[in-house]
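Purpose: get a first structural picture of the assembly so the mutagenesis plan has something to point at.
Setup: two entries, given in the order below. No constraints added.
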Amino acid sequence: MENISALKNLMYRMADDALIIGHRHAEWTGLGPTLEEDIAFSSIAQDKLGHALALYTLLQQLGERDPDTLAFTRDEKDMKCCHLVEMPNNDDYAFSLVRHLLFDTAEKLRYGKLENSSYQPLAQLARKVKGEIKYHVFHANTWVIQLSAAGTDESKARMQAALNEAYPLAFGIFEDSGFEQELIDNGIFVGEHRLQELWLQEVNVVLEKAGLSIPDVTDTSSANGGRKGYHTDHLQPLINEMTEVFRIDPTATW
Amino acid sequence: MADSITYQSLDPRVTRMHIPTNEQANFTPLDDMNHWQTYEVFHQAKTGGRHIHVGSVHAPNAEMALLYAKEQFGRRSVCVNMWVVKTQDILSLATEDADVFATTPEKDFREASGYKVMSKLNAYKKLQKEANTAKETE
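Result (structure tokens, whole complex):
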């Protein structure tokens, strides 16, 4: 296959996003706002790690190393996640929820398009995780609307502050990977540019319904870099913490 | 503020919360009216099947109750649909009124199984058979 680098690059971007946001979400486990929400959000975090595992497994089938090695031993500069997923939670549930909404709306559209991918293993995975991602979006939309339009003055103000921070970062999801035309020409994926157009249409409807003002983003490239291995200062500490147990004994089995 | 006076945990997430060690926990209990209400959850395992009560969840409204019902009760077994109903909206008999059911087991005449019909049915079938045999031999 000629376009194997483009395909691998796409799957690394998706897998690393899922791994890192899964880890961020999992940082709430045991500390969530209510018992039910703790369980629901932890379950979403687990789903994300499952998506990362599925993608690393597909990469392994294309000759890359095994999933644990890919997840736990790569250097920060080899990670291809976007800046949005790297940002710390800072004990702010509003930020985690807004990020969850912005990210999962993009995930829903991305996997939706991949159901028709010419690369069959990816198309199959997309069909398999469809229901999970639908639930993630349902969870995100419900919470964001509950704390914004249906919330108190304080909750709405905190959601708006979180949106002001997260929204400009979300454009980094759609950073040009350098492989876009190849992916489009080979029918693997519609490309990040098209995905961003679809995302804007959909996410802005939810934000308007929530009564939040959509931040004016003039320079959408300010959050770029992640896809090329240039990350925020927050990724390396996350990797250190995430891989701490693995590094004690990489050959241990569970 | 030096880290030495905040709580140091083996869990880095807890350490990052900078919880003072020299202070009484200043968590105020929720007011009585400030708790989320509960919703009863009904689970359907098969399309067209009955919804069966499986438990309850805390939620501020029905939509969020459904969101939580899916996670608490829909992830360990096959499920195709769920209902949530506000616990307050359920009217039930008082426990001490359970005696209204006391004589129910005796009232088997209210059940189809309470009627002995098989002997009558068999007698009728036998009669029919005999009639048919008689007709054939004529």
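DSSP finds eleven helices and no strands in chain A.
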